[in-house]
Amino acid sequence: MSDQFRLVIVGGGIAGLALATRLGNSLGRAGKLDITLVDKGFAHVWKPMLHCFAAGTARNENDRITFISHAAGHGFRFCYGEIAGLDRTNRRITLAPLVEQDDEDVILEERYLDYDALIFAIGSRANDFGTPGVEQHCIFLDNVVEANNFNERFRHALLQSYGRGTPLDIAIVGGGATGVQLAAELHKALEMGSLYNFTPQTPEMRVTLLEAGPRILPSFPEDVSEGARKQLEALKISVRTGAMVSGVDEKGFILKDGSRVDAQFRVWAAGVKAPDVTRVLDGLDCARGGQLVVKPNLQTTQDDRIFAVGDCSFITENPFPPTAQVARQEAHHLAKYLPDWILHQKPVPPFKFHNKGAIVALGSYNGWGAFADGKTFGGGALRGLSARLGHTALYRQHQIELYGVTRGLIACFTDWLDGFVRPPVRMD
Ligand SMILES: Cc1cc2nc3c(=O)[nH]c(=O)nc-3n(C[C@H](O)[C@H](O)[C@H](O)COP(=O)(O)OP(=O)(O)OC[C@H]3O[C@@H](n4cnc5c(N)ncnc54)[C@H](O)[C@@H]3O)c2cc1C
What we know:
Layout: E1 6-10, H1 14-28, E2 34-39, E3 43-44, H2 50-55, E4 65-66, H3 67-73, E5 77-80, E6 83-87, E7 92-95, E8 98-99, E9 106-108, E10 111-114, E11 117-120, H4 134-137, H5 144-164, E12 168-173, H6 177-194, E13 205-211, H7 222-234, E14 238-241, E15 245-248, E16 252-255, E17 260-262, E18 265-268, E19 292-294, E20 306-308, E21 313-315, H8 324-344, E22 358-362, E23 366-370, E24 376-378, H9 385-403, H10 405-421
Parallel strand pairs: 1-2, 1-11, 2-5, 11-20, 12-13, 12-18, 13-14, 19-21
Antiparallel strand pairs: 3-4, 6-7, 7-10, 8-9, 15-16, 16-17, 22-23, 23-24
Helix pairs in contact: 1-8, 9-10
This protein binds flavin-adenine dinucleotide.
């Protein structure tokens, strides 16, 4: 048996894969650390693109990073599996059995993985806050499987509308970046699809965005919220603020004031909570949304050998928003300080967040950005070109960080070439 220190990272999203790649490139390749990345999927995707996969305006074959081959090239191992339990005394995690979805045949039995240090990076999901009917009657957009499922249903619904000449009604709950960007992206998909003259008449798509608060994009300054609202309304997307959903049925949403918003397509993109498994992790402290409570240096409050980063973590003294930027910076922090903690028992210092602002892009229609000091940019005659380019640049930066410069640039070039070969919107 190897006497190398065993680091297990659970979750290969924005934080987990960046961390595994950085540590693998340094300590893993040098044989100083035994790193295993565990994920319940086989490939990594940049989550802020999920709404594009759902609308079909991006094709995720080009945007996936296959864990197993990436791990082999970057000094770590990949283990497919979904964490289901934790035994802190024996330093062991349990991976749930892998079961065939249709006939429930067991493909892989329950397995165990031993660790010397454990990092949780399992992200988050939308939060239905216990609203009746959401689970049964809404589509979620929290992972690539859900995004692909969304796209398939969207294409079928469009086909039906084209064939029958009837409108397609879509209602989205959540006026944050996900809901707002999704509404615009669906409009873009319909507009692009109509260029192919499938039928002489493009069907009407009626999108309603429901937000419980007084304005959409509440984490952005008011001028960005107002600009985004105007842009959505220009696209004939109905934006309803102060619209609190109290229930959902097979026909649509029921609002708190008793009125209804009926729609064939009901999307829940509001709120954030950690995956349910955090509640059964051998007594680790959880925040209200199930996030693992960590000290300012990202170590869990109950166990110094366990850390949590990204959306699934929560620093009580100073909570950070669940964004890609925070997830990446937390991963970089641990990549910098874990080697000394592991090899020389030096404490990990507190994490400091450097807020570089935020960007929101409404398809190719418009975009805005806000700096940390509240100054904004975007909109205007160039329809937010700088913000839209900034949004794309963030994804490319992530790709280059993971692939390395040469392969990262090749991936960008391949995507660009792909645009000459395939339609801009998924049709198959
Ligand atoms: C549609 C959409 C648009 C967004 N747009 C933006 C944006 O424009 N800007 C921005 O900053 N943020 C945006 N976000 C939020 C951003 O994507 C998240 O904050 C970020 O992905 C968090 O990174 P993470 O590493 O914590 O988790 P994730 O990137 O979600 O990764 C979690 C990983 O854990 C794995 N996992 C989960 N549960 C288990 C388990 N039980 N066992 C094993 N593996 C597991 C998952 O498969 C996944 O690979 C958006 C989110 C969505 C859904």
